[in-house]
Design goal:
By secondary structure, chain A is α+β, with helices and mostly antiparallel strands. Chain A has helices at 10-21, 41-46, 65-76, 86-116, 124-143, 155-165, 178-188; strands at residues 2-5, 27-30, 54-57, 60-63. Chain A folds into 2 domains: 2-76, Glutaredoxin (3-Layer(aba) Sandwich), CATH 3.40.30.10; 86-188, Glutathione S-transferase Yfyf (Class Pi), Chain A, domain 2. Chain A is 53% helix and 8% strand. Chain A has a 4-stranded mixed beta sheet, covered by helices on one side. The interface between A and B is large, with 43 and 43 residues.
Chain lengths: 196, 196
């Protein structure tokens, strides 16, 4: 298995976390985002979207971080990280959707804007407002649940983790969100979790 | 099964399409979005995100349009609309991700802005730029494929359909995208497809 990644990318980090938790060996291919290698023809052949991560496995190519998590979870994680019964699968997927929408367009884009002064989907205030929606939903959920879905760690937690952890870099301090803080610590304490 | 929806909502429309294709009987509960019923405590109990659609089925509550599609496809559609083999599931999920990200934050938010003068994630130009990324990826894919994933209709097509069809309302004419145009027609010709 080969993972195309950018080391500072939170979306790449999601896949690295799961591969590490499941102890799956893989080859890392670092994409040079400063040189915009991910927007060049060779990379666009792998992923027409022009984004990392991309996973290549025996000729199968998967783009999109959520799709990569799903592929690895189903191939190497049994029913533990992504079960297929309708209600269970849907419960995990709700949080995957939150990760791709409010978390990505809120927390991630606010952070990217602050760090790179790049604004493609609204101002800092707009991104932060969207990000706060995500944080409020997560905090409410985590007040009464140790994990986002199914009462156990799943790829829901992994998909939401990276850009929630870096919310302070988006100028959204996490101190008011005590349940989120405790959940971040629980995630990092999982056996096999990998550091950023 | 009970579907909470807003009649003009494309995200609600996705779930209505699949329920119709699979001929699943359900009760419609129309949420009054003008009165902001979806932001009131009673609705927020069902869905902390405060959005339609929401699906209720024998005590199971599913929010998020993609999660609703996944639930219905797995419960009533066998392997046809969402298979669970790792590579197949991931292939469908790539397009579900595109639907929730570039299509939602590009095509949908540009349309909502034009129709309701409501801008929460960038200007018209920014939303259109994001929307054009989605259209380009779809056009490339559909030039050589009748369907987005697996060579047959799946929930990938349903998830992408509504806000691509309404791209002209976001001031993005579809005439240059001939492969997308043919695909929209193929979708609408599916037996059991429901009109907006």
């Amino acid at each position: 298995m080969r993972l195309y990644l950018v080391p500072i990318s939170g979306n790449s980090y999601k896949v690295r976390i799961l591969l590490s938790l499941l102890n799956v060996p893989y080859e890392k291919v670092v994409v040079d985002h400063i040189k915009k290698e991910h927007k060049q023809p060779a990379f666009l052949k792998l992923n027409p979207r022009g984004e990392v991560p991309v996973l290549e496995d025996d000729g199968t190519v998967i783009w999109d971080s959520a799709a990569c998590l799903i592929y690895v979870a189903r191939k190497h994680g049994g029913e533990q990280w992504l079960p297929t019964a309708p209600a269970e699968l849907a419960e995990v997927m709700q949080w995957i959707a939150l990760a791709g929408e409010e978390i990505q367009f809120g927390l991630q884009y606010a952070r990217r804007g602050v760090l790179q002064d790049r604004w493609t989907a609204g101002t800092l205030e707009q991104c932060q407002a969207t990000g706060r929606v995500a944080l409020a939903i997560l905090e409410t959920r985590l007040k009464n649940n140790e994990w986002l879905a199914l009462g156990r760690p799943t790829i829901a937690d992994i998909a939401c983790f990276p850009y929630v952890e870096t919310a302070p870099e988006a100028q959204l301090p996490l101190e008011p969100y005590t349940a989120i803080g405790a959940w971040l610590a629980r995630c990092k304490a999982l056996r096999g979790w990998t550091a950023r």
